Records
---
Amino acid sequence: MAERQFRMLQAFFDDSREDGCVLILAGFAATSQQWMQFCNRWEQALTMSNPRWRTFKMSRVELGDPSQLERSEYHYRIIEEFIPGAFCIAIPLPALAKVTEEFRIEPKFRNPYYLAWLVTISLFRNFHLRNGWTQPINIFFDQQGEAKMVLEAWNIMAKQNADMKAFQTAPIFSDDEKTLPLQAADLLAWWARKNWVEHGTFNNQKWLFPWEERSPGPDYFFAEVDENGIRKHFLKTMILPN
């Protein structure tokens, strides 16, 4: 049983939003054993300097302070050492608003978090089915008000797809102060949003950070749902008015 637990994949996601522009959902995936090693080092990094950081929040980092940016890089190097997979998903908000207005989608499904989490769940299901993954996976999200919307997305996926064996359970919600991998997801989501806003796309983006890329590091997967993709999604799921 313990060996099987170590082989289990766990993915941790956080969001970062630029109002009127884009919602980013981003996170990392690794085995339980890799996350255990990561957590030990991440906790040490939080206590390494004065003042101690209770949690890592990229939004609290002063980019103009070289010491804080250096410390952020140090945290990223921990991710780089232990975590093999990174995922960034973008939902352009103007495109979502246009399509949902065009189709007169009911208000709760206009919430960009619904579509972002549905894409994430679908993404991991497809990876499991098509890429030969054999490990079960648990997906963790930062605990917040949209939890009900995530579970609705999960239920829709479960009804539409008989084969959901990739997942051991429905998505799990946790507090980022207690769940250190969610702090890593926060770091990624913040930089992914910053880069998407600057470029208006993930196309041709290979690196998100101001520090040097090193190898080996996580393999990055970027996805964004454009206007046509959003339109196809609602036609497929039939979440349309009668």
---
Amino acid sequence: MDINQVTLVGRLATPPERRDFESGTYNTRLLVTVRSDTPRRRLDVIPVVIWDTPISGMTIGDTVLVEGTVQRRFWEGEDGRRSRLEIVANLINVLTPPEEDDA
């Protein structure tokens, strides 16, 4: 059995960008950064798209939870056929940082 399921927690790197289409549908694209220390220290930038779901109240640096699937898109560019991996989200939530104790 194949499973294509992604859960991603990272920081919002760019403001969400909405694109409207003539068909009446729309998508919102954003970039999420994810830090990793293994096998070596790096910062990955993951493109995320969500369809026909309003996104608001997110700012650069917010920690977000993304759930969805991985998709490879293909298109023709000036240099020939191109492709890109992205997360197609069905859920994007801003994670609220825990309140600091005043004690």
---
Amino acid sequence: MAYTVPTIEPKKFAIGTTLKFKRSLPNYLPSTWTLSYALVMTGQQITFTASDNGDGTHLVNVDEATTAAWAAGIYRWQSYITDGTDKFAVNTGTIELTSDFDASTSGFDDRAHVKKVLDALEATILGKASKDQAFYMIAGRQISRTPVEDLIRWRNLYKSEYSRLQQEEDLARGLSGQHKIRTRFRCN
């Protein structure tokens, strides 16, 4: 089965793999206009340019060797077009760059941030926090110095957020949500 090139920017992307998608901008044809992207995260900036796909669309095709040098994290992105004289912003969004499992090391931890915080909170509540977990910062507070009632409140909040994240991932993979609507009929 051939790879179907997406027609929109991805929300998530594994570094060390090929980034490929195309964009249709009928008012800015690639024969005259160049589509470019800038991704930014604290201390990081990534830029790349699309090419003319030959069918009136702009093709982004960044090879795996280039993306392997990118740092994982959540980036804000902006796309813009230019004809050499004028430059206009087209769109903005966010993208999460994740580590490539094939190139990861034994110390690799791909848990979502919310899961890392949840695990640290639960370990602290149980009194089994590692040295790193014992000084985890949440909203400017170290959890080692936080009252148990606050830890439980934070744990419940992060547990709910992690559950929501899992449901979003399930839906994105085409799996049904965990919410069930139950009905009961009564015959008289």
